[in-house]
Protein backbone atom coordinates (compact mmCIF):
# COMPACT_ATOMS: atom_id res chain seq x y z
CA UNK A 1 0.00 0.00 0.00
CA UNK A 2 2.83 2.37 0.85
CA UNK A 3 4.51 1.63 -2.48
CA UNK A 4 1.29 2.41 -4.33
CA UNK A 5 0.96 5.70 -2.47
CA UNK A 6 4.53 6.70 -3.31
CA UNK A 7 4.06 5.78 -6.98
CA UNK A 8 0.82 7.77 -7.11
CA UNK A 9 2.58 10.73 -5.46
CA UNK A 10 5.32 10.61 -8.11
CA UNK A 11 2.75 10.45 -10.91
CA UNK A 12 0.88 13.46 -9.49
CA UNK A 13 4.08 15.46 -9.17
CA UNK A 14 5.21 14.60 -12.72
CA UNK A 15 1.80 15.22 -14.30
CA UNK A 16 0.50 18.28 -12.45
CA UNK A 17 3.63 19.70 -10.82
CA UNK A 18 1.98 19.62 -7.39
CA UNK A 19 0.77 17.10 -4.85
CA UNK A 20 -2.82 18.27 -4.65
CA UNK A 21 -4.97 15.21 -4.03
CA UNK A 22 -7.11 14.72 -7.10
CA UNK A 23 -8.19 11.18 -6.30
CA UNK A 24 -11.72 10.09 -7.09
CA UNK A 25 -13.33 9.40 -3.72
CA UNK A 26 -15.26 6.34 -4.90
CA UNK A 27 -12.23 4.72 -6.51
CA UNK A 28 -10.15 5.38 -3.41
CA UNK A 29 -12.79 3.86 -1.11
CA UNK A 30 -13.17 0.80 -3.36
CA UNK A 31 -9.40 0.23 -3.41
CA UNK A 32 -9.21 0.62 0.34
CA UNK A 33 -12.21 -1.68 0.87
CA UNK A 34 -10.62 -4.33 -1.35
CA UNK A 35 -7.41 -4.19 0.70
CA UNK A 36 -9.31 -4.53 3.97
CA UNK A 37 -11.56 -7.27 2.61
CA UNK A 38 -14.92 -5.51 2.89
CA UNK A 39 -15.69 -4.82 -0.79
CA UNK A 40 -18.83 -6.77 -1.75
CA UNK A 41 -18.57 -9.34 -4.53
CA UNK A 42 -21.17 -8.28 -7.08
CA UNK A 43 -21.96 -11.83 -8.25
CA UNK A 44 -22.55 -13.10 -4.70
CA UNK A 45 -24.58 -10.02 -3.91
CA UNK A 46 -26.67 -10.56 -7.05
CA UNK A 47 -27.33 -14.20 -6.16
CA UNK A 48 -28.28 -13.29 -2.59
CA UNK A 49 -30.35 -10.15 -3.24
CA UNK A 50 -30.71 -8.92 -6.86
CA UNK A 51 -32.39 -5.66 -5.85
CA UNK A 52 -29.56 -4.81 -3.45
CA UNK A 53 -26.99 -5.67 -6.13
CA UNK A 54 -28.75 -3.32 -8.54
CA UNK A 55 -28.75 -0.53 -5.97
CA UNK A 56 -25.10 -1.17 -5.13
CA UNK A 57 -23.92 -1.10 -8.74
CA UNK A 58 -26.16 1.53 -10.33
CA UNK A 59 -27.03 3.72 -7.36
CA UNK A 60 -25.06 6.35 -5.48
CA UNK A 61 -21.98 5.23 -3.53
CA UNK A 62 -22.93 5.13 0.12
CA UNK A 63 -20.36 4.53 2.87
CA UNK A 64 -22.33 1.64 4.33
CA UNK A 65 -21.93 -0.40 1.13
CA UNK A 66 -18.65 -1.51 2.65
CA UNK A 67 -20.44 -2.77 5.75
CA UNK A 68 -22.43 -5.41 3.81
CA UNK A 69 -19.69 -8.08 4.03
CA UNK A 70 -16.37 -8.68 5.71
CA UNK A 71 -15.18 -8.09 9.25
CA UNK A 72 -17.46 -5.98 11.47
CA UNK A 73 -20.30 -6.19 8.98
CA UNK A 74 -23.55 -4.50 9.89
CA UNK A 75 -26.81 -6.42 9.64
CA UNK A 76 -28.76 -3.24 8.90
CA UNK A 77 -26.54 -2.16 5.98
CA UNK A 78 -28.84 -3.70 3.34
CA UNK A 79 -31.92 -1.98 4.76
CA UNK A 80 -30.00 1.29 5.08
CA UNK A 81 -28.95 1.02 1.42
CA UNK A 82 -32.54 0.53 0.30
CA UNK A 83 -33.80 3.41 2.47
CA UNK A 84 -31.04 5.73 1.30
CA UNK A 85 -31.69 4.80 -2.35
CA UNK A 86 -35.35 5.70 -1.89
CA UNK A 87 -34.49 8.94 -0.04
CA UNK A 88 -32.05 9.97 -2.76
CA UNK A 89 -34.44 9.56 -5.67
CA UNK A 90 -37.78 10.41 -4.03
CA UNK A 91 -37.18 14.16 -4.11
CA UNK A 92 -35.93 14.51 -7.67
CA UNK A 93 -38.83 13.23 -9.73
CA UNK A 94 -42.56 13.56 -9.91
CA UNK A 95 -43.23 9.96 -10.89
CA UNK A 96 -41.54 8.43 -7.82
CA UNK A 97 -44.38 7.77 -5.38
CA UNK A 98 -43.81 7.63 -1.62
CA UNK A 99 -43.76 4.15 -0.11
CA UNK A 100 -43.31 2.76 3.35
CA UNK A 101 -39.78 2.85 4.82
CA UNK A 102 -37.37 0.28 3.47
CA UNK A 103 -39.31 -0.69 0.36
CA UNK A 104 -38.44 0.32 -3.17
CA UNK A 105 -40.66 0.11 -6.21
CA UNK A 106 -39.39 -2.23 -8.90
CA UNK A 107 -39.32 -0.31 -12.13
CA UNK A 108 -39.24 -1.87 -15.57
CA UNK A 109 -35.72 -0.55 -16.08
CA UNK A 110 -34.54 -2.21 -12.86
CA UNK A 111 -36.12 -5.55 -13.74
CA UNK A 112 -34.69 -5.42 -17.28
CA UNK A 113 -31.21 -4.66 -15.90
CA UNK A 114 -31.45 -7.54 -13.42
CA UNK A 115 -32.52 -9.93 -16.20
CA UNK A 116 -29.61 -8.83 -18.41
CA UNK A 117 -27.13 -9.22 -15.54
CA UNK A 118 -28.60 -12.64 -14.73
CA UNK A 119 -28.25 -13.81 -18.32
CA UNK A 120 -24.66 -12.55 -18.43
CA UNK A 121 -23.86 -14.36 -15.17
CA UNK A 122 -25.39 -17.56 -16.52
CA UNK A 123 -23.31 -17.29 -19.69
CA UNK A 124 -20.14 -16.77 -17.65
CA UNK A 125 -20.94 -19.78 -15.46
CA UNK A 126 -21.69 -21.96 -18.50
CA UNK A 127 -18.47 -20.87 -20.21
CA UNK A 128 -16.55 -21.52 -17.00
CA UNK A 129 -17.80 -25.09 -16.73
Structural description of this entry:
With 129 residues, the chain is mostly helical. Helices cover 60% and strands 0% of the residues. The chain has 6 helices and no strands.
Q: How many E strands?
A: 0
**SSE-based structural type:** mainly alpha
Taking all residues together, what is the mean pLDDT?
Answer: 79
Large-scale geometry: globular
| Topology as a string of helices (H) and strands (E) | HHHHHH
Percentage of β-strand residues: under 5%
Biggest pleated sheet: none
Rounded radius of gyration (Å):
18 Å
First-last Cα distance: 35 Å
How much helix, percentage-wise, in residues?
Answer: 55-70%
Question: Low-confidence runs (pLDDT<50, min 5 residues)?
Answer: none
Q: Count of helical segments?
A: 6
Task: Detail the topology: elements first, then pairings.
Blueprint: H1 2-16, H2 25-36, H3 42-48, H4 50-58, H5 77-90, H6 108-128
Helix pairs in contact: 3-4
Quick structural overview:
The chain has 129 residues and is an all-alpha fold.
Keywords:
129 residues, mainly alpha, 6 helices, 60% helix
